[in-house]
Design goal:
- By secondary structure, this protein is an alpha+beta fold.
- The protein has two domains: about 45 residues; about 140 residues, START domain (Alpha-D-Glucose-1,6-Bisphosphate, Chain A, domain 4, 2-Layer Sandwich).
- About 45% of the residues lie in helices and about 25% in strands.
- The chain has a seven-stranded antiparallel β-sheet with strand order 1-7-6-5-4-3-2, covered by helices on one side.
- Helix 4 packs across helix 5 and helix 5 crosses helix 6.
- The protein is globular and about 40 Å long.
Length: about 190
Amino acid sequence: MKKLILMFENKNYCRRNKFLVCLTFIIIFFVIQPAIAQVNKNAMSEHINTADSVRGITIHQEIYFKVSPQSVYQALLNSKKFSDCTKKSFDMFTANSANIDSAVGGTFSVFDGHIIGRILELVPNLRIVEAWRVVDWPEGVYSIARFEFKQQGIGAKLIFDHIGFPEGLKEHLSIGWQQHYWDALIKYLQ
């Protein structure tokens, strides 16, 4: 018992104890709490469908364009350019098929209102992140579309990732991105 009393009186022991208590709080605050917050956020969020991406269902595509990253970036964010691109490739869309507010928080509507969403992040000529949805999806369901641009030689490499779309649509959406976006943009920009 005497040793135990001496141990508590020992300043080094108290310092080590305080250090361990502080370290425990730091671990809880920076490691465990964000994980709990993420679980709560996912449980409460009804607007972004993450079920498919949790199971590893994503669309990942890499496309090469023979123009600068800036040209591709601008074509995706400019109403007139996107409408011209769409009209050049598809007779079924009007000459003003795109309406894009190209600012963070801005909304967009493309393919005569068939695709709608909001711009979440813009890094000029490097990245676009959108909350993206097809209008006939269940109300309030948005996916995330991420476009990343890299200079590759004299052209641009677009790295595209799409997550959070309704289950069962991966193949359909993959084909749609290729035909309605990438093939159309390649035809328009060259």
